């Protein structure tokens, strides 16, 4: 970026333009292994300033990368060289909570947990609860279509977005969706923004659906025999929705051992575990549902008594620290996120075991078992040729088994090339047309998902890129 362009942006924002490599380190990385120092960081105070920044970027052909909590795992919020980060983490207003329409209208920087706490005052809750719910923002949740343990019953973020205000790559401000729970009005442009990773527009306001809070929620940790077919367990317990089962998670023995070493954990750490949640109306109803669940567990070949957490969020807060626990146990590693059909989960586990045998690297697996949403980990350094070869193998296996490259974390920089291959020529042609209509200059989050060759070429950090003088978060 030339000095004149930077002076112009400084004139627009004044002290709300952050410059200097040391000050920019904070916005140079996300929770992936990637990092890149941007040219500057903009802190707009309102929508009109976001529009002004986009107009400026169009004039000067400068990439813009929107950032919230920086918890993305595949480089979605990592800048490309020469980019300006648009930091909306300070946009934390909850504009409205309406328990009649069952909606919340929020700014994109509102943290998931903050919304949950505010909705609870009205007897409501927002169903999506990603593992990063204590720090991830609603803007990021929407941009990556985040999920979490409760997605087994309630679906991903996509199912709960009612409306959004968006500044497009043209700098136009558009309103998409509405307050009503259902729409049938032709192709849904709002859905293009969900999971779009900021490549089509900048979310400046979001309206999400809420539900009445279940009166009771308890969680259980259930030991699993090592030899038990995980696909059979998943298929058996997936029928438990009618008994109030709202989460069906899995930790293999390595993950359970790492998590059991977390301070305050009450988990057995010597075998694989199921983590379950049951919703109920009152104590009597909970007892009936737990009895029914016990029968299903026996049918699935699981006879050991579960460990019960009367407060389900206690277990999910612990489960959300899996990443940190594995950082301590395994160090740098390939961390993946794939979707696999329930009937083929065991085949995926066999491939992971082959990788461990061939490479000698430690592996582990956890995930949202009820949906086949799996997180395989391999203790090989990401960004290295061997590490990226194993990542490709993890992804290709999921697709070969009829699954997907990502069940919840998104594409970002890490999976962009694999995603393009999986979409095919015709799919890319259609999506390119969408990108060109929403962001004709290719300035919004280039290199992620919908790549624009003339902007991306030579700018995106390589899979092993990092900020000089620091280690990016694992």
Task: Summarize it.
By secondary structure, this protein is α+β, with helices and mostly antiparallel strands. Helix content is 34%, strand content 19%. It has 4 domains: 3-89 and 432-456, Uridine Diphospho-n-acetylenolpyruvylglucosamine Reductase, domain 2, CATH 3.30.43.10; 94-212, Uridine Diphospho-n-acetylenolpyruvylglucosamine Reductase, domain 3 (2-Layer Sandwich); 216-322, Alpha-Beta Plaits (2-Layer Sandwich); 331-414, Alpha-Beta Plaits (2-Layer Sandwich).
Characterise the protein shown here.
- The chain is of the alpha+beta class and 474 residues long.
- It has 4 domains: 112 residues, Uridine Diphospho-n-acetylenolpyruvylglucosamine Reductase, domain 2, CATH 3.30.43.10; 119 residues, Uridine Diphospho-n-acetylenolpyruvylglucosamine Reductase, domain 3, CATH 3.30.465.10; 107 residues, Alpha-Beta Plaits, CATH 3.30.70.2190; 84 residues, Alpha-Beta Plaits, CATH 3.30.70.
- Helices cover 34% and strands 19% of the residues.
- Strands 12, 13, 14, 15, 16, 17, 18 and 19 form an 8-stranded antiparallel β-sheet that branches.
- A hairpin with a 4-residue loop joins strand 18 and strand 19.
- The chain is globular and about 70 Å long.
- The C terminus is likely disordered.
């Amino acid at each position: 970026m030339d000095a004149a362009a930077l002076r112009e942006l400084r004139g627009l924002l004044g002290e709300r333009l952050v410059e200097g490599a040391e000050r920019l380190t904070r916005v140079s990385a996300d929770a992936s292994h990637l990092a890149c120092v941007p040219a500057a960081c903009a802190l707009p105070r309102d929508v009109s300033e976001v529009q002004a920044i986009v107009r400026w970027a169009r004039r000067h052909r400068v990439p813009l990368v929107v950032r919230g909590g920086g918890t993305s795992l595949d480089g979605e919020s990592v800048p490309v060289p020469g980019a300006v980060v648009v930091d909306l983490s300070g946009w934390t207003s909850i504009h409205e909570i309406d328990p009649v329409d069952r909606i919340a209208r929020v700014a994109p920087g509102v943290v998931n947990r903050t919304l949950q706490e505010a909705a609870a005052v009205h007897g409501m809750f927002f169903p999506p609860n990603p593992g990063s719910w204590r720090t991830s923002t609603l803007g990021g949740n929407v941009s990556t279509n985040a999920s979490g343990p409760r997605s087994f019953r309630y679906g991903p973020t996509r199912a709960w977005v009612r409306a959004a205000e968006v500044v497009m790559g043209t700098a136009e401000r558009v309103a998409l969706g509405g307050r009503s729970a259902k729409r049938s009005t032709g192709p849904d442009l709002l859905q293009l923004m969900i999971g779009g990773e900021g490549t089509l527009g900048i979310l400046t306001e979001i309206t999400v659906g809420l539900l009445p809070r279940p009166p009771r929620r308890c969680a259980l940790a259930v030991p699993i025999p090592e030899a038990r077919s995980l696909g059979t367990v998943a298929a058996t317990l997936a029928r438990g929705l009618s008994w109030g089962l709202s989460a069906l998670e899995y930790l293999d023995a390595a993950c359970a051992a790492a998590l059991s070493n977390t301070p305050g954990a009450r988990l057995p750490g010597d075998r694989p575990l199921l983590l379950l949640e049951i919703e109920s109306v009152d104590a009597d109803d909970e007892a009936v549902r737990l009895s029914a669940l016990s029968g299903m567990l026996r049918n699935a070949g699981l006879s050991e008594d579960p460990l019960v957490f009367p407060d389900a969020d206690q277990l999910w807060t612990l489960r959300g620290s899996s990443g940190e626990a594995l950082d301590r146990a395994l160090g740098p590693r390939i961390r993946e996120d794939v979707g696999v059909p329930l009937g083929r989960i065991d085949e995926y586990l066999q491939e992971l075991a082959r990788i461990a045998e061939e490479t000698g690297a430690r592996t582990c697996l956890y995930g949202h078992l009820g949906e086949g949403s799996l997180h395989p980990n391999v203790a090989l350094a990401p960004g290295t040729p061997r590490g990226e070869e194993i990542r490709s193998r993890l992804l290709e296996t999921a697709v070969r088994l009829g699954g997907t490259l990502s069940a919840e974390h998104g594409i970002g920089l890490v999976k962009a090339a694999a995603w393009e291959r999986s979409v095919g020529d015709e799919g890319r042609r259609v999506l390119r047309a969408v990108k060109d209509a929403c962001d004709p200059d290719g300035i919004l989050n280039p290199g992620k998902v919908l790549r624009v060759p003339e902007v991306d070429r030579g700018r995106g950090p390589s899979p092993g890129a990092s900020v000089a003088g620091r280690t990016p978060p694992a």
